[in-house]
Description:
Layout: H1 4-50, H2 59-65, H3 67-106, H4 109-114, H5 122-131, H6 139-163, H7 168-176, H8 189-217, E1 222-228, H9 237-242, E2 246-248, E3 254-255, E4 275-280, H10 295-300, H11 311-316, H12 320-327, H13 329-337, H14 355-370
Amino acid sequence: MATVNERLFDELTAHAVDLQQYSDGVARRMIALLNRVDADLSAELAAALERMPADSFTVERLEALLGSVRQLNAAAYASVTEALQSELRAFAAYEAGYQSSLYQSVIPAAVQVRYSIASVSPNQVYSAAMSRPFQGRLLKDWASNIEAGRMTKIRDAIRIGYVEGKTASEIVRGIRGTRAAGYADGLLQRPRRDLMAVVQTAISHTAQVAREQFNEANSDLIKAELFRATLDSKTSPPCRIRDGLKYEAGTHRPIGHKVPWLQGPGRLHWNCRSTSTPVTKSWRELGIPIDEISPSDRASMDGQVPAETTFASWLQRQSPARQDQVLGPERGRLIREGGLKLPDLYSPNGRYLTLDELRKRDAEAFARLAA
């Protein structure tokens, strides 16, 4: 029988895979909002350049003519920021509820009689996530920074274009890109990548805040956190060195080593995919008399940490249904038949999850745990 810590590890690893796919989907929706303005922005830009022949170009006149472009750019990022904040508010509520539901499903009833599972407020999680900086800035500051950076790139491209003798249409095409390439070959592609990194990091940041607040609220049950990196060829050196290391719950002081927690998993660097899993106290550490807990509950609440594992070995021992969820039905079938190697399967399969899909999947997981 799997211990509580092993079951928590398995479920939270699966959850981390789902969240990665979910964050990819949110990032693409935010970029789609930005892209809707690009056609209007390009049209305004072309009109402004037509009003300024090359022989009358000055920096001062350019700044004056770009007023409408600047307004469109600001409005686009204001729309993205509002949509992202709304998404993060809903996600904070979902993640806070997920943590409570998971522990209620995994912790034995005999333990919950003495130690009830404390929930955390969704508003508290959201407010904490918005007030805590990640990568040195708050979310609103990152949005403003990308907005200003995109406008600077546009102005610089125009100046260089005039110096090189390009036409207005050539300058605009270089900024927006070409339809044949899906506009991915233009100057505006870099701000899109920057926005994707901010969105994905903001989601992992919010998820980690929810975990930390839940662990703190349940400190009578949880004694430590394990740093868990996504083990594949893309894992960063800072995450690799911390994978499997134990830290005190709440304070995050190192246990048995000297590697600092720093900002923690999900926030250690841009697009950090690492997460953390809890280590619950044993029934002895909880002070529960032996005659009040069954032999099976004593075995499950032994406080043992799951053995060292990799994403590949975790995936190998999951059910066919969960393998299909992570990899897709065809890849799941191939891996079970031995036709595909695990190292080839670490990346998500490109299917993006909504919050409703996450809720449905987790409800099914909780039902399996209850059974």
